[in-house]
Amino acid sequence: MTALAPLSAALPSTPAQRLDTARDFEAVFLGQVTKLMLESVELDPQFSGGEGEAMFRGVMAEELGTMIAARGGLGIAAAVAAQIERIEGGGQ
Question: pTM to 2 decimals?
Fold first, then answer.
């Protein structure tokens, strides 16, 4: 039994489930990247949404990440799905 055995037991087993999990991972990753990008932009007080915008900026970043991933993302999902399959030992 390898150190990855407990982890592989919890992973999805069909190719479609692996790809869905990988796409979800990519969406979260892209949401975090988008959040960091939005935080790096200096806001002009005249044109920003004030406290309301600041409060929902994280939600917007998360949604942008989901939308980017849904449109094909950066190709991270395919690599993650391949790694999940490798950890599972080839799946079904």
Answer: 0.73
